[in-house]
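A quick aside before the break. I want you to see a complete sequence-to-structure record at least once, exactly as it would be stored in a machine-readable document. Don't worry about memorizing anything.
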Amino acid sequence: MRPALVPLLLTAPLASAQIAHQHDSHEHGRADLQIAYADGQLEVEFTAPGSDIVGFEHAPRDRLQHSGIEKSLETLRDGRIWLAFEPADACAFTDSNAHVHGFKAQQASSEGGHGEDDDHDHRDGHAGHDHGAGQGEDADHHGGHGEFHASLKAECAKAPVSVRVNLGGYFSSLSRVRVDFLAEDHQGRVELPGGRGEVRLAP
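That is the input. The structure line, written in tokens, reads:
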């Protein structure tokens, strides 16, 4: 069984120091994206503050906010709409997972909403729950933060030359996306203003 690629990216000499630093901070307006490719397999990890995806980091207070979280998770789970490969037929997505954490589960909902459904774990459309202690609105007052996370995997018939990112087309509050990438023996970092731009994987 082959090892996951993103953990290999985390151990790469250049990227490990960069990613360790970025995971220590929660910077509004900036999302983090990791892309790793090797031997026909590509993996993507995405993390962003809740405020830059849905405009808040507290527990959703009404149906509209619940819906905002659900629609955002659906978007992140479908890599085909915010990631494009060059060549276009280089890779096909095979698995995806999107979830949030840090949004405190509401104890009751007068709107008849999701109740304890405020921490989500979605795999290929199947929902689960991951309720952490000390998260959400109360945690925000003590340094906690609501965040979105997505993980995607793809199989590649040929090595992708580049990946075009269009997160800004769906999440307009993102001012930039910081991308760390590792493709075979080529690695680096780029920043995409407005969450849009090309990440070149070939040297």
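Two observations worth writing down. The CA atoms of residues 35 and 164 lie 12 Å apart. Residues 10-24, 106-144 have pLDDT under 50 and may be disordered. We'll return to this after the break.
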